[in-house]
Amino acid sequence: MDQTGKRKALGEFIRTQRIQLPTAALRLGGSTRRRTPGLRREEVAQLCDISVTWYTWIEQGRTVSVSAAALARIAEALQLSRAKRAYLFELSGKKDPQAQDGLAQEIPAEILAVTDTIKTPAYLLDRHWNAVAWNRAAKTLFVGWLDKKTASRNLLEYTYCTADAANLISDWEQRASRLAAEFRADCGMYLDEPEIAELVARLSAASSAFKRAWNLHDVVEKEGGERRFSHPTLGQLSYRQVNLRVANRLELKLVMLLPL
Fold first, then answer.
1. Distance CA 161, CA 91 (A)
2. What φ, ψ does residue 169 adopt, rounded to 5°?
3. Phi/psi of residue 205, each to 5°?
4. pLDDT digits (tens, 9 = 90+) for 143-198
5. Nearest-CA neighbor of 176 among 202, 157, 201, 195?
């Protein structure tokens, strides 16, 4: 979908949500009896503290200057569910101001337990690529990362800043370079977050290889493929990597390694 199509889709989505919102759910001045269902454009504009003309242009897909803050006010005024709010910002191409707050939400136990149901190495990464859950097979495989209580759980920090990773990953130089490009693609909309900025600064200071790869500004999709390891006790190992997103927590990524 091109930008014009996205603007029209965004406007149509907002319009349909407006007319579907029961007026009884809001405390509006005047009578709630009306000929047409839902809210009027004037009412949404008032709730969002924006002009009626500008709001009308948004619904008609005629403006490209909708800020993330304005979209957040529209989402709140229309009482959008979490899924609908995420869809709103996806159409707009803007970052949801509340997205960072979602990181503080506790991950349900059933999601964390998913890795334990998988027999092959599997781990769950958050937005910053910290491992938040992993199974016994992953703990055995990733020497110096998931098997040590004092080790950093960040995948980038492990890959670039430990000798264990350099010895374990057979094609370390190639994989490390690609990993930085995958991380940039994965967190592109959140590079201004303090946690990510601090992580990038810390890795750049600690690893010349990361700094060099990051400064290339390369972007590649995090995809599967063959992964080869030279394990200190298990010897040469080969896997096919599969990556999955958690449906109701899109910032979480499930990584599985299937034996070849």
1. 38
2. -80, 115
3. -75, -30
4. 999 998 877 899 999 999 999 999 999 999 999 989 999 998 888 777 777 888 89
5. 157
For 169, the token pair is 């990953």
Bin 175: left if φ > 0, else alpha if -120 < ψ < 50, else beta: alpha
pTM score: 0.70
Question: Between 3.30.450.180, 3.40.630.30, 3.30.70.270, 3.40.50.300, what CATH number should domain 103-259 receive?
Answer: 3.30.450.180
Closest of 75, 98, 67 to residue 21, by C-alpha? 75
Q: How are strands ordered across the β-sheet holding 235-246?
A: 131-134, 122-125, 249-259, 235-246, 225-231
Q: Where are the domains of the chain?
A: 3-98, 103-259
pLDDT of residue 24 exceeding 70, the answer is no
Retrieve residue 66's tokens.
Answer: 């909708």
Question: At residue 105, does pLDDT exceed 80?
Answer: no
Distance (Å, rounded) from C-alpha 237 to C-alpha 21? Answer: 56
